[in-house]
């Protein structure tokens, strides 16, 4: 049976360090990190994530600002709000919760955020720095940064000689995850829906990272014995086995059967998810330190 990688515990270590760093910045420079989170529309899951981000920001000692915009918000109105936040010196981090309602285009909104306030790490300047191997001067997308921290705790910082397979090629996760693994010297394969014989590709992975958005798609015969499995999926399925109505949360990996083969595995919930919010806090405190030219804390 694989070791279960405890994302909640690692996230608490990060947020404790963030709180400490925020307190120091306040004491020594009189500056309180400010995080503005923008949500448009009524998606319940997005509201839950944004609520969790705002609560954690307060817990870390930040000035936590939440902008809840109605479903019918226009592209112009949203971009004007971003401009206002760009110009506000008390705001060090801006995050626009995704996905946006269908009539809005996310890319122009993301690109309108000043790169130094882009705590989601999605602006082309931040994505470009990561792609060119500069992990020091930009901001890195939160979920991949969190997944890498879990891997670092488990396998160390140098992944030389290890084969990593990332399933999924999104800008939010798959692409930056691939870049981070490459920067850690892993041999990286980016797999996706058009990959031929996906199970065989995955079976070659010492590190298997699943971000496909399909409940329990990765089965035990996809997993190399002894592999480390990182599950980024968040899917709600009917809770049939409990004999009651309702839903339960599962990842992209069939947990029980894959845990029997892997050497370590992240659960859902309680794996990568909590790290996403912790790394958002880390990015915000980093942005605040940089805004006054202070050396940034390490997480
Ligand atoms: N602008 C962004 N939008 C979205 C991002 C993002 O990083 N930036 N990621 C996801 C959603 N997300 C954060 O926004 C997120 C997802 C899951 C969790 C989490 O802690 N999950 C828990 C379970 C929570 C539950 O019970 O539902 C877990 O896995 O343990 C945090 C953040 C899409 N949008």
H-E order: EHEHEHEHHHEHEHEEEEHEH
The largest sheet is: 6 strands, parallel
Top-tier CATH class of the largest domain: Alpha Beta
CATH topology of the largest domain: Rossmann fold
* Poorly predicted runs: none
Strand order of the largest sheet: 1-11-8-7-5-6
Helical percent range? Answer: 40-55%
Overall structural class, as computed from helix and strand content, comes to alpha/beta
- Average per-residue pLDDT, rounded, comes to 97
Which ligands accompany this protein?
the ligand Nc1nc2c(c(=O)[nH]1)N[C@@H](CN(C=O)c1ccc(C(=O)N[C@@H](CCC(=O)O)C(=O)O)cc1)CN2
What is the count of distinct domains?
2
Q: Helical region count?
A: 10
What global shape is seen? globular
Count the E strands.
Answer: 11
Radius of gyration: 19 Å
Beta-strand fraction estimate: 15-25%
CATH superfamily of the largest domain: NAD(P)-binding Rossmann-like Domain
């Amino acid at each position: 049976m694989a070791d279960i990688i405890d994302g909640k515990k690692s996230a608490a270590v990060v947020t404790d360090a963030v709180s400490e760093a925020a307190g120091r910045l306040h004491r020594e420079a009189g500056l309180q990190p400010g995080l503005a989170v923008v949500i448009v529309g009524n998606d319940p899951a997005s509201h839950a994530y944004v609520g969790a981000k705002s609560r954690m920001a307060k817990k870390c000692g930040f000035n936590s600002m939440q902008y809840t915009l109605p479903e019918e918000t226009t592209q112009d109105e949203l971009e004007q709000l971003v401009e206002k936040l760009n110009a506000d010196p008390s705001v060090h981090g801006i995050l626009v919760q995704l996905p946006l309602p269908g009539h809005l285009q996310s890319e122009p909104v993301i690109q309108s955020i000043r790169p130094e306030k882009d705590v989601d790490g999605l602006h082309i300047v931040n994505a470009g720095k990561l792609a060119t191997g500069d992990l020091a001067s930009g901001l890195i997308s939160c979920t991949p940064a969190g997944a890498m921290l879990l891997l670092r705790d488990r396998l160390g910082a140098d992944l030389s000689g290890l084969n990593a397979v990332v399933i999924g090629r999104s800008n939010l996760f798959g692409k930056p995850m691939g870049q981070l693994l490459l920067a850690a010297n892993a041999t990286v394969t980016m797999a996706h829906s058009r990959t031929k014989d996906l199970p065989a590709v995955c079976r070659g992975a010492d590190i298997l990272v699943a971000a496909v958005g399909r409940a329990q798609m990765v089965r035990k015969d996809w997993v190399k014995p002894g592999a480390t499995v990182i599950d980024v999926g968040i899917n709600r399925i009917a809770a049939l086995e409990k004999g009651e109505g309702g839903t339960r949360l599962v990842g992209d990996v069939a947990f029980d059967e894959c845990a029997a083969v892997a050497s370590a595995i992240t659960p859902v919930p309680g794996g990568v998810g909590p790290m996403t919010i912790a790394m958002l806090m880390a990015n915000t405190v980093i942005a605040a330190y940089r805004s006054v030219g202070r050396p940034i804390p390490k997480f």
